[in-house]
Amino acid sequence: MSRFVQSLRLWFAPQRIRDEGETPDYRFSLANERTFLAWIRTALALIGGGFAVDQFLPDLRWAVRVGLALALLAAGVLCALRAVNHWIRCERAMRRGEDLPVSRFPAVLSLTVAVVAVAMVVLVLFGRAG
Amino acid sequence: MGGTAPGDEVRDPGLQPERTRLAWRRTTLSCTVVAVLGIKLALVDDTTAAGLAGLALSALLWIGFLAVAHRRIRALDAARPRVLSTRGALLAAGCTVALAVCGAALIW
């Protein structure tokens, strides 16, 4: 957890990242930025999915519909926050010449998306009766 | 498209700045879709104060994201662009999170 607090401090004191190590090749930083943007798009897709569930599945019961939508929105928020955190950690690792940080977030996210997708299929097929 | 000034380096053959710029464009497009869905969410039932607030907030957040992306796209129009500022990254992610929170409030 202290690693997280450390990078959280970097979020709000961006000049500190420049104090560390050497500036990497700008192309590496741009690649890191594109990865960050890809994660932001993933977050936006999850959020859009949450909005879509609420709007386009009106036959579901209120609790189920809102629960699914809020779960997707929460996943989107997590994904966006994690995008910033990972971007900063990668940038710092590149400056220090360390290995890039590894993360279990992609695995957790894909499992969550798979579970939500299966739940949606089940709900759309059998939820109308309820 | 900036012309190459006399002292400029040769452009990266991998076109990294261009690719990054297109990534920002794609992300802006995704944000637009989400903002439109959010606005539709706000307009779904009778016009209420909460709905109007949600609509205004969604539009504002979309404009905020657009501004960040536009600034960055302008900055990328260089042979050797500087690193994305932490503020820019935080603002982009912040707009995304705020859109989600705004939508969650509307759905609730």
UniProtKB/TrEMBL annotation, chain A:
Q: Where is the DUF202 domain?
A: 27-93
**InterPro entries cross-referenced by the UniProt entry:** DUF202, IM_YidH-like
The UniProt keyword set, sorted, is: Cell membrane, Membrane, Transmembrane, Transmembrane helix
Q: Does the keyword Coiled coil apply?
A: no
Q: How does it sit in the membrane?
A: Multi-pass membrane protein
Q: Where in the cell is it found?
A: Cell membrane
Q: Where are the transmembrane segments?
A: 36-56, 62-84, 105-126
Pfam families, A to Z: DUF202 (PF02656)
Q: Which domain of life is it from?
A: Bacteria
* Major localization class: membrane
- Note whether Aminoacyl-tRNA synthetase occurs among the keywords: no
Q: State the protein's name.
A: Membrane protein
TrEMBL record, chain B:
Quote the Pfam families the UniProt record gives.
DUF202
Which cell locations does it reside in? Endomembrane system
Which parts pass through the membrane? 49-68, 89-107
Chief location bin: membrane
**For the DUF202 domain, which residue ranges apply?**
12-75
Q: Does the keyword GTP-binding apply?
A: no
Q: Does the keyword Transmembrane apply?
A: yes
Question: Know the name of this protein?
Answer: DUF202 domain-containing protein
Lineage, top ranks: Bacteria, Bacillati, Actinomycetota, Actinomycetes, Kitasatosporales
